[in-house]
Amino acid sequence: MKRRDGTKTSVQDIITLLKCTDPDDVPTFVARDLNKLPPVTFDHVDVTSLLKDIVSLKASLADVQRKLETSQMTVADLRTELNELRNSVALTGSPARVSYVNTRRGAGCLDTSVTSFASAVLSPAPIAASAFRAPGVQRSPAPVPAALPRSAARTTRPSDPVVTVSVPTAPPAKPVAVKEKTRADDDGFVTVQRRKRRQRSCKNRCGKAPSEPNENLRAAKPNTPVYISRLHYTTDAEDIVKYVRQRLKFVPRVQLLESHRNVNFKAFVVRIPTCYLPQVMDESFWPQNVVFRRFRGQVPPERTKT
After folding, report:
1. pLDDT tens-digit map of 95-141
2. Distance (Å, whole) CA 219 – CA 260
3. What is the per-residue pLDDT across 23-60, written as a single tens digit (0 to 9) for each?
4. I need a surface site. Which of 6, 10, 60, 247 has the fewest CB within 10 A?
5. What angle do CA 255, 258, 263 make, to 5 degrees?
6. What is the CA radius of gyration of the chain?
């Protein structure tokens, strides 16, 4: 920016330009290196912004005080109403007794209304006084008695005595068993223990008496089914029995498995005693290329030949 006369600019011209220009049109200058800026002290604080903040704080504080006074007045009114309700309950009776009375049919005011109604019916003084009045005296309207409940009107008559109603009291509350709280240690942890299982009275037991090999009463040996496959189609169940008997000195039960597909090999299930299972599951026990493993699932029932 240069002067109109063509001379060089000065600082005064820049200040005049900033004062005459609208603040919204003045660009915002940003420092690239903050370390080169001078430090800001309390002398550079804008007092106007602080005064605005103080004024807003005072206004908000006054609003809070006004709301507090309103709430205190509301609490005082509620306390007054609560005291009035307590006094009215103390005059009418205990709440435990009123809870057993059907107030819709007028049973709540039976003790007081019955006696007042009976005394009003039995005293004919107002009727006699109104019959013998002077002719110049105006008659005042007779007071209308308050409407009484139907139950009181039915039970009270001029010739009947006053009836008192006994209201059943509340039954005594049963004592509630309080569970003992789990005790925690000094660090606040609770030790959790597993519940002990009930000992079954009909638990199975095993005998320990020794038995001879030729004795008829002896325990059966548990068997494990073993699956054997990829055997030649000419192999029979008797061939497997002979093979196992030569190796284990035991005659197993062999069952032929029928395939749902047309295959050129046979598969069998051999029931081996569990004590011989490690030997049978060894790869050196069976011939080469014979597939074997423990049988999966349930063994199919044997078909009877007809």
Report:
1. 455 555 566 665 555 444 444 444 444 444 444 444 444 444 455 55
2. 38
3. 888 888 788 888 888 877 777 777 888 899 999 999 99
4. 6
5. 125
6. 55
Structure tokens at 79: 């306390």
Q: Please state the domain extents for the chain.
A: 45-103, 223-294
- For 189, the token pair is 């942890």
Written as one letter, the residue type at 247 is: R
